[in-house]
Amino acid sequence: MRPQRLEDIVGQQDLVGPGKIIARMVAAKLLSSMILYGPPGTGKTSIASAIAGSTKYAFRKLNAATDSKKDLQVVAAEAKMSGTVILLLDEIHRLDKTKQDFLLPHLESGRIILIGATTENPYININPAIRSRTQIFEVHPLSLDDIKVALNRAITDKERGLGELPLQVDADALDFIAGATNGDLRSALNGLELAAQSTPPAEDGKIHVTREVAETCLQRKALVGDKNGDAHYDVISAFQKSIRGSDTDAALHYLAQLVAAGDLPSICRRLMVIAYEDIGLANLPAAGRTVQAVQAAQQLGLPEGRIPLADAVIELCLSPKSNSGIAAIDDALADVMGGHNGAVPEHLKDAHYSGAKKLGHGNGYQFPHDFPNDWVKQQYLPDSLKSAQYYHPKTNGRFESQLAEQYQRLRQANRK
According to the model, what pLDDT value does residue 229 have? Predict the structure, then answer.
């Protein structure tokens, strides 16, 4: 059921729809090399084959991990003979330097139009020499409706699909196949084919694919996938941003995805980061309780550990938020890394050793505990930074509001 023209592609209409970038390239016959990246089964190979079918160029497919430089040489020789070859290079993020160096001059000459396919983020995992010679397009998981369109085509197509079979697919079975594959059309088509080919005809002569049959034939895909893949880090990112945005239900959804993937270490680490980065001084006790929840989850393990984790996520979502702590230390670090250190004032220098007083170290230091309220006005910052302010209090929570009042009182007292 691989599309043979751009018009046959379901989904990815922001790239291949009328008037969009890839459609324009094909119409103008001005193809350039590109990298398509996104989850499996979302149409990367289909786009490449449809481009080739729409342009009538020769189409070859290789794998950067398993095919050799000799295989690339065969494609290059064909391109020299025929003029242009579209090469789909799967797993392009695994292209080694020898193959890359061979490919580059052919890309620059235009003899080979490279369409690289990868599930990895090309800005992180693909060599800059290749990136600079290609356009990068992201493909997205297909919607439920897109997958249903493709499944219905497969059911009715008599030449390339299952149209010759007396197939009857129940609506709820079709919904299950479309929904359970998490936007992966390849898995959906494979599941449909297995259900159709392995189900014997009923008394009426028809092959009935029910939801029960679909569930038996279709292995559910892991929602988060490879723990080292981009999709996993996207879920972690969405998890933190949902808590930061106070969306309890979204945060619980992403927590559930991470729990289903069994990635307790990432959940625990991220939750502690969130507690201090996004809630912080607005509700410092909540941060402490998050640490306790993490410790409980680590001792319990999964699946029981999900319970304290869910409690912590709900509290963090509904807590007042403040990032003043991370903003303060980052501003201070920016000064330090920028060379704005300044000399430690003489009265603050270490004076515990013999001879320190002769150097002037510690002279004039006033011990705050000797004064009323355990405070005395004196300079602590270096002279070059004596007016610097890194902490800018927020007043979203009662706890930081009290800190803000005290911080402002002390700054005013020091200015008097």
Answer: 56
Of 347, 339, 334, 287, which is closest to residue 315 (Cα–Cα)? Answer: 287
**280 & 192 share domain:** no
If we measure between CA atoms, which residue out of 329, 319, 313 comes closest to residue 390?
Answer: 329
116 and 150 housed in the same domain = no
We report the CATH number of the domain holding residue 207 as 1.10.8.60
Cis check: omega of the bond before 303, within 30 degrees of 0: yes
Distance CA 138, CA 42 (A): 10
Rounded to two decimals, the pTM is: 0.60
Supply the pLDDT for residue 405.
Answer: 92
Domain CATH for 19: 3.40.50.300
Indicate whether 75 and 188 sit together in one domain.
Answer: no
Q: Which residue segment(s) compose the domain that 387 sits in?
A: 324-415
Buried b (16+ CB within 10 A) or exposed e, 303-318: eebbebbbbbbbbbbe
- Residue at token pair 């030449």: 159
With a cut of 70, say whether residue 214 has pLDDT above it.
yes
Q: Which residues contact 40 (CB under 8 A, 6 or more apart)?
A: 119, 184, 186, 187
**Rounded distance between C-alpha atoms, residue 51 and residue 271, angstroms:** 45
- Say what the pLDDT of residue 230 is: 61
Q: How far is CA 111 from CA 27, 106, 131, in A?
A: 19, 6, 18
**Per-residue model confidence as pLDDT tens digits over 370-405:** 999 999 999 999 988 988 999 999 998 888 999 999
Rounded to 5 degrees, φ, ψ at 130 are -75, -45
User: How much is the pLDDT for 55?
Assistant: 83
Q: Is residue 222 part of a domain?
A: no
